[in-house]
């Protein structure tokens, strides 16, 4: 008769060895972070993100990383499904279709435990996508308490070790999402950042005017960014203490750009440009940099199944970038495609964008000269711009562009990454514009994008309106200019 003790012992040993042989994945996301806030991406003042800068020295840094939709829920649905928004059904704050495969169920079926901290609803686009371990904002110090993140992370990692299972762990900071950190009036449950900043410390992004009101708001954003860095440091501490760091692929990104005008909820360069830092000991060369290949979050799902050697489901739109992590080249990464469909509140403001190494083309089918664009990320920055615009025609022109757009935009991103000078009518760029338009059409055809019909008829406003109505319903209803 076999001794039950030895049976249990060898079962646990086999399970532990099985887990150790399979890499873990930890995806850490910031909420509304400007990529260039990080020191390793040229951020100022120096020392704003010490933990992330240290992590970057141990990682591969991608300089051409983007999110495919610069709004939290649609972006996270793309991460979860590996499909563009119109291919999953999650074209805004709405669920993905239940028949669409997701990363959590896929890895769970292969023996992984799946855990999540923060942004649970926005990161769970399907009812059938069930996390094994889950704590949301209210149980994380309003998503803004590094010590609580540390404690929750330690618990999850311990549970995985006890179960002898590898893990997929999505850790989502609620920083630096609004409301920004006012040290004189902390959000209940939130911690103080390890350092506080003032308006004089701010380096105003080039797509915003340098106004006192803008500086004042960005100083509070920097406080939130510092607390994000504190949280990241504590989660990395928990990983190190668990003993799992050497067997864990860790990625750091933002879900979209900063929540101010001309960034989040749009398709300009700083709307979608994301930091991407990837550490995988013994597999990735520390301190390496990739500034040649475009990668985006639609590529995460196929990369994760490639790394874990799990069979990929059919229908993924992205491609694994594991070869890049190994220091190899990879063809077909000369362009990145980004989009907006509908935003918070349900208003449809469809945008389609393609970017190459030096140029960016945007198609805004909703722009008809009357539709009044707005979002919930404007804050005191837009208040300051509106006030300054009364006496400054250049700022007034920026405000007007933000509100009404134009159907087509084209930018020389090498010389104008802040997208200040629309070159769509400049004949010197006609060939480049045509090239990017052709790339966009090919992408729309390949992914069955409903906006293709609008694009090919973009000079016929009546047809464009019909396409938008067929796709989004009564899209014009929420585009009226508010009464003063």
Automatic annotation (TrEMBL):
Span-the-membrane segments of this chain are none
Gene3D superfamilies reported in the protein's UniProt record: Alkaline Phosphatase, subunit A
The record's annotation in SUPFAM superfamilies points to: Alkaline phosphatase-like (SSF53649)
Coiled-coil spans in chain: none
Keyword flag Signal: yes
The record places domain Sulfatase N-terminal at 23-309
Where does the record locate the signal sequence feature?
Answer: 1-19
Q: Name the UniProt key words of this record, in alphabetical order.
A: Signal
Record's protein name: Sulfatase
Which species does the entry assign this protein to?
Blastopirellula marina
């Amino acid at each position: 008769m076999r001794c039950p003790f030895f049976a249990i012992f060898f079962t646990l040993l086999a399970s532990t060895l099985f887990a150790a042989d399979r890499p873990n994945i930890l995806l850490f996301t910031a909420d509304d972070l400007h990529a260039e806030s990080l020191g390793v991406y040229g951020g100022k003042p120096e020392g704003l993100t010490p933990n992330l800068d240290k992590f970057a020295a141990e990682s591969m840094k991608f300089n051409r990383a983007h999110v495919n939709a610069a709004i939290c829920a649609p972006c996270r649905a793309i991460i979860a499904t590996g499909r563009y928004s119109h291919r999953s059904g999650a074209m805004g704050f709405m669920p993905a279709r239940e028949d669409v495969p997701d990363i959590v169920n896929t890895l769970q079926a292969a023996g992984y435990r799946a855990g999540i901290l923060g942004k649970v609803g926005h990161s769970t686009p399907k009812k059938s996508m069930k996390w094994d371990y889950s704590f949301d904002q209210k149980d994380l110090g309003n998503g803004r308490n590094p010590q609580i993140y540390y404690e929750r992370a330690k618990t999850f990692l311990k549970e995985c070790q006890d179960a002898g299972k590898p893990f997929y762990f999505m850790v989502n900071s609620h920083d630096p999402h609004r409301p920004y950190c006012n040290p004189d009036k902390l959000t209940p449950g939130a911690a103080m950042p390890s350092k506080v900043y003032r308006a004089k410390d701010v380096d105003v992004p080039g797509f915003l005017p340098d106004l006192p009101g803008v500086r004042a708001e960005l100083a509070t954003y920097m406080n939130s960014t510092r607390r994000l860095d504190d949280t990241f440091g504590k989660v990395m501490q928990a990983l190190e203490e668990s003993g799992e760091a050497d067997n864990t692929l860790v990625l750091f990104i933002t879900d979209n750009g900063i929540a101010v005008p001309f960034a989040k909820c749009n398709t300009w360069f700083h709307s979608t440009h994301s930091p991407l830092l990837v550490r995988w000991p013994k597999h990735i060369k520390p301190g390496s940099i990739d500034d040649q290949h475009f990668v985006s979050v639609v590529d995460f799902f196929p990369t994760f199944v490639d790394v874990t050697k799990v069979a990929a489901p059919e229908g993924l739109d992205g491609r694994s970038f594991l070869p890049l992590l190994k220091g190899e080249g990879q063809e077909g990464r000369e362009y990145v495609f980004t989009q907006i469909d509908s935003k918070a509140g349900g208003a449809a403001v469809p945008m389609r964008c393609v970017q190459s190494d030096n140029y960016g083309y945007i198609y805004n089918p909703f722009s008809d000269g009357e539709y009044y664009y707005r979002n919930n990320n404007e804050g005191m920055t837009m208040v300051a711009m509106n006030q300054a615009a009364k006496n400054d025609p250049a700022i007034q022109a920026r405000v007007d562009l933000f509100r009404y757009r134009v159907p087509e935009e084209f930018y020389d991103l090498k010389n104008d990454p802040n997208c200040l000078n629309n070159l769509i009518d400049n004949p010197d760029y006609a060939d480049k514009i045509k090239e990017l338009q052709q790339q966009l059409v090919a992408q729309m055809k390949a992914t069955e994008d409903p906006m293709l019909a609008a694009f090919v008829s973009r000079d016929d406003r009546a047809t464009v309106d019909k396409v938008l109505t067929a796709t989004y319903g009564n899209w014009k209803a929420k585009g009226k200019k508010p009464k003063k």
